Amino acid sequence: MNKYFILGGSVIIILVAGIMYRTFLLPEASRPCSGGITRNFTVTAEKDKWNFVPQNLEAECGDKIVMTVVNEDEYDHGIAIDALGVSQRMPAKSTITVEFTVTQEGEFPYYCSVPCGEGHVDGKLRTHFDMIGTLKVKPARGPAMMGK
Ligand SMILES: [Cu+2]
Predict the structure, then answer these.
(1) What are the tens digits of pLDDT across the range 106-124?
(2) How far is the CA of 131 from the centre of ligand 1 (A)?
(3) Are residues 29 and 105 in contact, defined by beta-carbon separation less than 8 angstroms?
(4) Domain named EfeO-type cupredoxin-like: which ranges (predicted)?
């Protein structure tokens, strides 16, 4: 048999197997999703508190997130969400906006990406590493619910 015929046939089989896998076998949760709504969140780094408020955000897979991040401090902070490619510096006393689309379910930590020291808040030590929250991305709405 012609070796090019065998080679071409093998490539086609691999391609078809790949498409079948993506379409039928890939678990629902790891499929990228789209077609969500736009959600606006405001997250604030409160003055001399080493926190992000709120600490929990919820969205649905496929949503576009418009996140307004307020830095009330007189020193710099940053906002980062590793898995979503978000990383931006927040100069002192500034407000920035980051936009991204969540295409996977899961829990994604957002945290301060600029070392910003520490201090005592109500008698408790708080540090740069306490500036963390979680964005929880739930499964997308079913197609029947679309457009509601
Ligand atoms: Cu910080």
Answers:
(1) 999 999 999 999 999 999 9
(2) 6
(3) yes
(4) 40-115
In whole angstroms, give the CA distance from residue 63 to residue 59: 7
CA–CA distance, 107 with 97 (Å, rounded to integer): 21
Q: Please give the distance, rounded to the nearest whole angstrom, from the Cα atom of residue 141 to the centre of ligand 1.
A: 35
Distance 95 CA to ligand 1 centre (A): 14
Least Cα distance to 38 among 83, 99, 108 occurs for 99
Q: CA angle at residue 50 from 48 to 55, to 5 degrees?
A: 130
**Neighbour order of strands in the sheet with 94-101:** 38-45, 64-71, 94-101
Amino acid code (one letter) for 142: G
Contacts for 73 with CB less than 8 Å, ≥ 6 apart: 45, 47, 48, 92, 93, 116
Q: For tokens 């509601």, what's the residue?
A: 148
103 Cα to the center of ligand 1, angstroms? 27
| Ligand 1 center to 60 CA (angstroms) | 27
Digit-coded pLDDT (tens) for 80-101 = 999 999 999 999 999 999 999 9
Q: From ligand 1's centre to the CA of 106, what distance in Å? A: 24
**Residue 49: strand, helix, or coil:** coil
